[in-house]
Amino acid sequence: MRIAMSGTHRVGKSTLIEDLGEELSEYRVVDEPYHLLEEEGYEFASPPCLEDFLEQLRRSLDLLEEEDTRNVLFDRCPLDFLGYLLTHEDSDAFDVEEWLPRIRSTLKTLDFVVFVPIEERDRIRLPAHEDSNLRREVDEKLAWLLLDDPYDLGVEVLSVHGAGASRVSQVIERLKRG
After folding, report:
1. What is the pLDDT of residue 128?
2. CATH code, domain with 42
């Protein structure tokens, strides 16, 4: 199976993927584009600019296209970056239609996406310096992209909730169904 984690920042995606990596030893974990780009010397603006999210989208798509093996867990999904791009203050400079064909074809390489939404009681405390409104906007945009599927992307989505062990169990149960 090829599975990508999706969600706004500080919802527990990385923790979930670490826990799944321990539970599913036959799976390989692919780090999120932000960390990979940083390791390669890419310098992100603070706060991230539109180009930073475009670069992460490119890298996310490349990772899905390059990695053709089974049993892979991707930390982040291309739709995460689409969510950030569509909510960015400079979003009018982003042409979503230009990217949709590649996003559609690349998402078809995934068996499903695990969506980790913001929960009523946050599992991870948001530092005071981070923009909680942006986080909520991106979460809402991701729910729209993943669950409402306005662009007919056709990707299966498993929305997980609860504490870490419960989230892991929900993914494992989905894997058992094939």
Report:
1. 53
2. 3.40.50.300
Cα separation, 83 vs 113, in Å, equals 14
d(CA 56, CA 62): 10
Q: With a cut of 60, say whether residue 126 has pLDDT above it.
A: no
Angle between helices 96-107 and 50-66 (to 10 degrees): 30
Report the alpha-carbon distance of residue 5 to residue 75 in Å, rounded. Answer: 5
Total structural domains within the chain: 1
Structure tokens, 27: 């799976």
Beta carbons of 160 and 170 less than 8 angstroms apart: yes
Distance in angstroms (rounded) separating the CA atoms of residues 166 and 16:
10
Segments of 44-152 assigned E as strands: 72-74, 112-115
pLDDT at position 43, please? 97
Contacts of 23 (CB under 8 A, 6+ apart): 168, 172
Compute the distance between CA of residue 82 and CA of residue 134 in angstroms, rounded to an integer.
14
Distance CA 17, CA 19 (A): 5
Domain containing residue 13: 2-176
pLDDT, tens only, 28-60: 999 999 999 999 999 999 989 999 999 999 999
